[in-house]
Amino acid sequence: MMSLLSRAALPVLLLGSLLTGCATHSDGTAPLNQRTWPICSLLGGLVGGGLGAIESSGWAAGGAALGLVTGGLICYAQDGDEDDDGVFDRRDRCADTPANTPVDNRGCPLPQYPAAPAVEPMPQSEVITLSDQGDVMFAFDSAELTPQAQSQLQGLLAKLQGADVMSIKVIGHTDSQGTDEYNQRLSERRASSVAAFLLSQGLAPDKLTSQGKGESEPVADNATEEGRAQNRRVELHIQR
After folding, report:
1. Which of the listed residues 63, 116, 146, 226 has the most CB atoms within 10 Å of its CB?
2. What does DSSP say about strands 208-212 and 125-131: parallel, antiparallel, or unpaired?
3. What span, in angstroms and rounded, lies between the C-alpha atoms of 172 and 215?
4. Are 154 and 146 within 8 A, CB to CB?
5. For residues 101 and 93, is the Cβ–Cβ distance under 8 A?
6. Which H helix or E strand runs over 6?
7. Which residues is 182 bridged to in the sheet?
8. In 3D, which of 16, 35, 18, 15 has the Cα closest to residue 88?
């Protein structure tokens, strides 16, 4: 009689251990619980029947029936999971968590960190220099553009009118011949003359400014004619 009871109890004990282990994870998640008791019953029936069949074919049906009942009861005894976050209600410290919210093992939402702000690309600049080293831009002591200078500027219109151009600053420079005050005024007049020509060719007024810097920023030696020709220049500073 004791042997019979032992053999009958063995499948139940094995089944109970299996389902209890599956129903409760160490982190509090609950894949098998009250809501999934039919699955537990099915698993219990399969396990019970399999264990019973080890003894004999006659034990298979009884083991399956016992497994169905035992599996369902074990899972039904588990806590539910009302907010479907995968954590038993008895361990859930944050009930009613919104659906699809990532949670920790206490059922509380994981901290959400804002995405890093997008880094705006730095504006790209380009400087185009037109100097007397090539075609003469202006006659001596004059701010009137020569035909050659106008032709050079017209050749740059496609670039200057590009959709990506944010602003254009026209900066005039002179050599060191003459006084500082005179050269400052001359550089301003020449920069304004270039800006006026570009405006007449259709450049947007809100993108165009002009400035004169006189002889304050030489790029070559003013002691030579070649150096002075390089210093007599107009720069187009383009920001994209």
Report:
1. 63
2. unpaired
3. 9
4. no
5. no
6. helix 2-23
7. none
8. 35
| Residue pointed to by tokens 């002179």 | 174
Gyration radius from the chain CA atoms: 44
Read off the pLDDT of residues 38-51 as tens digits, 9 standing for 90 and up.
666 666 556 655 55
CB 225 within 8 A of CB 133: no
Q: Burial letters for 49-85: b for 16+ Cβ neighbours within 10 Å, e otherwise? A: bebbeeeeeebbeebbebbbebbbebbbebbebebeb
More confident site: 20 or 97: 97
CA distance 210 to 236: 9
Length of the chain, please?
Answer: 240
pLDDT, tens digit, 9 for 90 and up, residues 101-139: 888 878 788 887 777 777 777 668 889 998 877 777 888
For the chain, how long is the longest CA-to-CA vector?
Answer: 128
**Please, what are the domains in the chain?**
2-76 (no CATH), 125-239 (3.30.1330.60)
In this predicted structure, what is the pLDDT of residue 12?
Answer: 52
Residue 138 phi/psi, 5-degree rounding, is -140, 150
Q: Cα(147)–Cα(139) distance, rounded to whole angstroms? A: 11
Is the pLDDT reported for residue 209 higher than 80?
A: yes
Print the SS3 string covering 162-199.
CCCCCEEEEEEECCCCCCHHHHHHHHHHHHHHHHHHHH
Report residue 28 CA to chain centroid gap: 34
